[in-house]
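Q: Can I see a sequence and its folded structure?
A: Here is a first one.
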Amino acid sequence: MPEKKSQEILKMISESNLEKVCIFSGACVDPDGLASQMIMAAIIKKINPTAEIFKYHRKSFSHPQNKTMRQSLGLDVKSEDDPIFGFEAQNTEESPFTCAISVDGPSSVCPVVPDFIIDHHEQSEPATTASDVRLIGSASAILYEYAIEAEVDFTTEEGAKLATALAIGVMTDTNNFGTPNSSDLDYKASAFALEHKDAKLFNEIKNYPKPSYYIDLLSLGWEKRRQSGAVLVTGVGVIPRQRSGVISDLAEKYAELDGISTAVVGAIIKDEGNIEISVRSSNNSLNVDEFVRQAFGSGGGKRGAGAAKIVLPPILKQIREEHSEQLWELARAVIIDKALQAAGDGERPTQSD
């Protein structure tokens, strides 16, 4: 019987130099990526107990659920601001790592070209050694298969934390198996994880506390919405980086409402002067990746979810506080126009403020 892809790549990983390993995850922090990093780290430790492992993310833990997950599971995840990542991007000769692995996200955002890619997103370039890309509901479900092959122990206290992260990762990225790309492996991984999870930690993360400003922004976004057919576009103004995690939460919430299949939510992050946009869609005929790129000229996505960041020119980043709302109103108008036009509904607005 031929070996599974996971068996082949596990063998390659075990034969690699695992002295100093970095595990990269995506363009933003989310439960699926965090779970994937945790499981891969456990696999590396199983192969080489003395390996030094770094888990890397590109953005802050601004989403309340991610913060809860980090605190409850004691995650040691480093950001791109850490000095160890201060080398020239995409230059393997400058890399301080002996092995780089990309999980749950486009490898193009990695600061080095990865040796291995294990993911559920389409990739523009293969890894230098081997890639395992399956277009299923979650990346952590694929990593579950690798963990079983590597005989990672899920019966210990640390194993229960792994299972807890796996359960949250699969359920979040498949939207509780509501996404059309949910697969048998997602179901199998979730069933296993729920059986082996730490119930207390699982409930803490699943029922993460909403911040007090959540309802205010939810109401503001609803008040400022423009809707055309089943597409809703809105924004929540100028907000600090610490609150930016709710943008995706709001998009998800609006997309669940009756009569809305696609929700687009944007905001200016005042600490950085950039516009961040989140997209959620239950419309199976909408290619979210193409939609985001067409509408905003950057970013991307997968089935059901996408995001974009628009970097404002320096002259607009340096405007006085009293002019920031005027800048936002202009940005909001452009976001609405571009999003509705890309969705094919730009000529038929049904509501505006």
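Q: Show me another, different protein.
A: A second, unrelated one:
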Amino acid sequence: MAILKQYSQQDPKWSTKLLGFDNSITIGAAGCLLASMAMVCSVYGFNETPDTLNDKMKAVQGFQGPLIMPYLIAQALPGMVYANYIQSINQPAPFAEINAALAQNQPVIVEVNFSPKQGFQNHWIVLVSKQGSDYAIADPWPEPVDAEQVMLTSRYGFGMSPSQIIKAALWLTDSAGPVIPPASPNLDTSVVASFTVYATADGLAIRSQTLVSDATLIKRVPLNSAFSVLEADAVALPLIGQVNQWLPVKAEDGTVGYVAAWYVSLASQIPAAASPAPAPANESAPAMVVNTTSAGVCLRSAPLVSEATLIKYLPLGAQLQVVEDDTVAQSKVGVLNQWLQVQDISGKVGLVAGSCVALGTGQAALGTVPQTSPAPAPAGSPNASILLRVTQDGLALRSAPIITDSTLIKHLALGTELIAIEAPQDVLAKIGQVGDWIQVRDVTGTQGYVAAWYVIERPADPLPPAGAPAS
């Protein structure tokens, strides 16, 4: 691998250039994720600056306004791969995945809080190596770039540990070759727990190390597989169900390795008695979905910009199901003076300006944007229902809160919007909690259950921008 090239978003060669498709925000002001992506791509042999990567991502429609869509990196730079994105606002930072990548000299992009001031001022940086319990970073903010090694906790810790600092992690890599399965580790001791544990997830991995990586995968086993625990009761019992803890085990076929302690239990799983949710009416022709490309897009009752036609404002990335002919609708997306008839996640039907939406990808754009605090929804209003967004690409929507092939309805893309169909107080207590499930409905009307630890609360519908004209 090549040595990482450090870039500053504030380099005068590109700092004043517009970021993505925004007409006022520059690379210097908010191009930290763009610059971080350029740095990571340099490790894999790409000679892209923030300026050239900005142009190439624009050429493949890789921005929503100033917000970049990293999952389109392969279209801009053939050979690069968008590997994963995990938010950790409501769950522990994914250190197993981060450390596995760094151990293979693969840098990881992470989101942190730029300032100790009240509120969250998001900023993206690159983790380049693990140094004890800390991480060396490449920071795109300083100009010129840092000449000496800088540590994560010294610059963005503000008295916190890495687990509190990291709010999201993004992996970009190159096309990987075949992986040779690792040998089972030598965990043969005379100590064996008095109890058996069972896999609570179908396809649970047995690994050679306590790291989530292709290089550590020995094999996968089905739901309810039984394991002997190669640890004393007093040590093993407190770990069961705990995120980022691992258990040394032996499977029934004799395979030895480590399993994620948060995916095992002391009892086998009994499928819940629930009727399968109906599949979409036409699987071969899924509903057309578009996403808003900026915050404050208006949903209107008529194709006229007027206070009298305003139904509500929509946040950035809101998913809308098109409720008119798809062929006609596609010709309007991204076009000025065209209107689309749509329905939002809460069931509101209306019209949006075609120039304010893009074809739905199900994946959220990322970047640095001003943070606002939405007003609380009035009790009893449609917005009193909890709106959610998916944080894991491929998250399963299931007909019952149990992981089996028979309960799978469909897979949901990163950023998919969902509306909870449970009591709000129950939903808020579950978000981010491993082992809990939330009953939801997506924008196409499909109902089911999702794992609560892979969703976060969606931003509320914004208030009218102060002094801004309605869009």
